[in-house]
Design goal:
By secondary structure, this protein is of the alpha+beta class. It folds into 2 domains: about 160 residues, Homing endonucleases (Endonuclease I-creI, Roll); about 140 residues, no CATH class. The protein contains 9 helices and 17 strands. A 4-stranded antiparallel sheet has the order 1-2-4-3. The chain has a 4-stranded antiparallel sheet with strand order 5-6-8-7. A 3-stranded antiparallel sheet has the order 14-15-17, covered by helices on one side. The two termini are about 45 Å apart.
Amino acid sequence: MTVDRESVARGFVYGDGSIQGRWAVANFCGMKDEAMLPFFVDKESPRQYAHFKRILHLPTEWKTERPPLDSMPNMLYGWLAGYFAADGDVDRTGRPTLASANRSNLEYVRQLCTAIGIGTFGIRTRMRKGFGKVETPIYLLGLMRGDLCPIFFLIENHRRRFIDGRDAAERRGWNVVKVEATDRVEEVFCAIVEGTHSFTLEDNILTSNCHHNYIAVEHHFGEDLFITRKGAIRAGAGDLGIIPGSMGAKSYIVRGKGEPESFCSCAHGAGRRMSRGQAKKKFDPQDLIAQTAGVECRKDAGVIDEIPGAYKPIDEVMANQSDLVEVVHTLKQVVCVKG
């Protein structure tokens, strides 16, 4: 993707500019002179000050406004390149990072990057001491190297470090340590990654799907075979999976042991001890309420066939397949959504 030159200038002013009266001004310090001045050739000539150069009478909105996210991709790309030239850095290992004292700037950049296909990491916070004695936060946002190319980096030192650091490791897979409730509401996209069948959450967290009804071509006993798993999940050596119990029972996060005799598979859940029709005849809503005590879920006749009593004890099932998987975590649900 090529950069729009005026958008580069605008992004640079947003980061390194200031407001002077009714106008925005661009400030050029050190190595930024040589790299960034060509993007302002149709503007006023720069004025020389003791330690920097300055171009006056630029549009005020260049400093006060960010481009709409539905702008042309080359305009967004150009703005980001200019902003990175002002407030970004590439460390000695080749990793590009943007810094801002205003978190909303980086939240906007993340949205912009999503719009033009550049991956980002989570926003980090560091405390710093500026001109005063009180520490203030500075926010940092890493850009994914694999989605960038050398021409994006307008500052020579940035570009050289990016090129020299091509072998830098980049962790795209994060581990979910904990989940906390917030007041945020977000649209969720399940962008399935072919091959691994992972999907992406915010911050490029890849999570693995755990299919239990599918067909796959796998190599077993010296042959390529069509493996059908119906109510079973893959349990190859090291594979993580989830084995849910009934609406009122425990569930398990497991790691596969790669047992060849089971075609590297294990049971997906407890399994029914009676048919759905039998469950509807045997149990009523009061039974369902009693058996799902402590779980927020539907407790009406419409889900009687899912009552815990219609399933085998999950603890017994797990004990019976201990040669297929090891338990990593035991979960007790508090909310169950059915129907």
